[in-house]
Amino acid sequence: MAMVYRKLAIYGGEGGREWDDDVYEGVRKVYVGRDLSRITYVKFEYVKENGEVVTREYGKITQQPKEFVLQYPHEHIVAVEGSYKSVALCATEVITSLVFKTSKGRTSPVFGPSMFGIVNGTKFVFEDGGKKIVGFHGRSDNALDALGVYFALDSPNTSTSLYKLEAQGGTEGRVWDDGSYDGVKTLRIGQDNCRITYLEFVYEKGGKSETRNHGVKGQTPSEFVLDFPGEYIKSVEATYHNPILFRNTVITSLKFETSKGRTSFFGYETGKKFVLEQKDRRLVGFHGKEGDAIDALGAYFAPIPTPAPVIPAKKLPSVGGNGGVAWDDGVYDGVRKIQVGQGNDGVSFVKFEYIKGTDLVSGDDHGKKTVLGAEEFVLEDGEYLTGLVGYYDKIYGVEEPAIISLQFKTNKRESTPFGMDSGEKFSLGEKDHKIVGFHGQAGDVIHSVGVTLVPITITE
C-alpha cells in the first residue's frame, strides 16, 4: 500500500545546520545526550524495509548519552514531547528536553536538564492520533537546535508514496487542500502592497488540466508557466509576517525554483522564512489556509518519475525522385491525421498531425495544394501506422520523378489509395515497428517520401 508521510515543521531555534533523515520502516533505538542546560546530542537507529539498520547522529557528546530501546517491530514511537528556550552561550533557542511515547503505552525518561522533574522553556508536542513516527529532521551543531518528525499515514488513494509538508504561516483563515496531482503546469500569484493575496494553480491529472484558486484575486495576477511535464517545482521559499494594519499573520513572499534552475519571486521578503522542499522529490500539490489573503502554505511532494527509456528510431531512406527541397518532420510518439492532396498526375501535397505525449503537433505543409484540395485519413485511439505503399513515376512537365499514389496501413485497417496505381511500386515499413515520422523531398509536387520507425511496445 502506498503511504502518505506527514512532515511536521521543526520546533526550536534557527542555529546549527539543517539535517533530514527522511523516512524508514520504524525506529529501534533513541540515544539522547545533554549538558547542564540543553540537549546536546541525539542518535536514532532506524530499520529499513529490508531489515537493514541505519544509524544517524547529530550534535556533540558532552555526557554519556542515555538510551531508550523499543521492542521493534511490535512497538513504535507515537509521540514526542519537548521544550526549547534560549540558554547561556547560545545565540538562538535550543532544545532543552525530550520525552518519547510508544504504541505500548510506555514513556521514556525525561531527557535533558531538569529540577525535580520540571523542565524550562516553551513546550511542544508531536502527535497524530497514534500514527507511527518513522523519521526525524532538525537542526544541530554543538547542540540540538531544533527537531521535527515524520508520521506514516496509510493511503489507499495514492499509487505512489507522498510527502505532505505541514502548512506554515499564520494560524487563522479557512483550511484548504488541493490534494496531489501528476504535476503543476501554471501558477498565478496575486499580491497587494504587503502580502500574497491570491493563488491559482493549474494542475494536470490523467492528461486533463484542473484549476484551483485561493484567496482574493484583486488585480490581474502574475503568471509563472512551467514546461510540463519536463519541468517541475523543486522548492518553494516563503516568508510570513503580520503586516501593519492587518490582524492576521499571512504569507508575504513566495519564491519558486524549478528542476531546470529557473526561479520566480512574488511579494515582499519580510518576516520569518520557511522552505517547502523534499530531497529527490517534485511538488505535486498545495494546501494551506486562506481569507482575504493567503494565511499559510504547505505542499505535497512525490517521487520524480523515472524517464522512459529512449526507444531508438530508425529512419528509412525516402523513395521517389530527387527534385524539390528536402524536408523532415522529425520523430514523435505516433501519427493522428494525414492529409493528401492530388494534382492532375500525382500527389501534390501532404501534411501530417503527430502525437507527442498528450499533445497533438501539426507538421508543416509539404508540396502545394491544387484546386482539388486535400483528403484526410484520421487514426482512432489505439491505432497506429505500420506501413506505407505507393507508386512513383515521371509526370508531364516535371523533370524528376514524383509520387503518383500513397496508401497507409495501420494495425487495424488500410486507407483508400490516394492517387493512381501506375509506375514503380514501393513499400515502406518493418515488422513489429510503427511509423512515427515522415521525411522526403517536395516542390510543387511530392517527389519522394520516407518514414521513421520505432519498435512497437508490449502495451500497444
From TrEMBL:
Q: Name one GO molecular function term.
A: carbohydrate binding
- Source organism, top-level taxon: Eukaryota
UniProt similarity note? Belongs to the jacalin lectin family.
Question: Has UniProt tagged this entry with the keyword Nucleotide-binding?
Answer: no
Classification via Gene3D superfamilies: Jacalin-like lectin domain
Q: Which organism is it from?
A: Thlaspi arvense
Protein name per its UniProtKB record: Jacalin-type lectin domain-containing protein
Pfam families xref list = Jacalin (PF01419)
Where would one find coiled-coil regions in this protein?
none
Q: Which CDD domains match?
A: Jacalin
UniProt entry keywords in alphabetical sequence: Lectin
Q: Where is the Jacalin-type lectin domain?
A: 16-153, 173-303, 324-455
